[in-house]
Structure of Triosephosphate isomerase:
Amino acid sequence: MRKPLLAGNWKMNKTIDESVALVSELAEKVKGVDDREILVCPTYPALKPVADAIAGTNIMLGAQNIFWEEKGAYTGEVSGPMLKAAGCKYVIIGHSERRQYFGETDETVNKRVKAALKYRLLPIICVGETLEEREKDVTKKVVETQLKGGINGLTTDELLLTTIAYEPVWAIGTGKTASPEQAEEVHAFIRGLLPAEVKDTVRILYGGSMNPGNVKELMAKEDIDGGLIGGASLKAEDFAAIVKY
Ligand code: PGA
């Protein structure tokens, strides 16, 4: 049985004070929920303050990216040990916004995934096709290439620590959710690509305009094990409603 994971990706939103206020409000609203995992991924400056605010609650902390070196002359980057020390358990890797605006490739995704695992952070690897790719009917090919590139060289034990997020780019921040059937088709396809020893254990999250109104029918699908939620995770009430779908 895969435990659902509801992960809030706050992207580049909220100051430290706003982040602490948001997570504190959320903590009140999701108190006692223990049959699913709840994760928030704030900006780097807010990591430690949010970690302190959620100490003793059922909310976990994640980062939105990681660099593969441990330390050194890499201006602007943040490493695994730094994220660990700030209280992170998870890290989002290869989000489509990173691929689109910051030159992320399947190779760099793979390096970040390996770095995360090396420092005992649980990677959430994002894959997903653009609208153009969907219209050209190459969704599965795109997703397969991204997935295989991202998990390349991982051992079975490492794969068991990994979460995949299927996020169709055309559904991110657009209010246009994939239908549960569209999402399930790709989720089942992704599961089928995973090695037999891990495929029933690895969680596959859906991301792209998930909200309190559509979460239930998405989560009803066999291969959808949770959500990576952007916009709706910025409002405690909405994110709490999603968590408690
Ligand atoms: P959205 O973002 O929920 O705002 O569509 C999801 C994501 O990009 O992770």
User: Anything to note?
Assistant: Residues 65-209 form a domain with the TIM Barrel fold (CATH 3.20.20.70). The radius of gyration is 17 Å. The beta strands are 5-9, 37-41, 59-63, 90-93, 122-127, 163-166, 203-207, 226-229. Residues 9, 167, 172-173, 207-210, 228-232 surround 2-phosphoglycolic acid (CB under 6 Å).
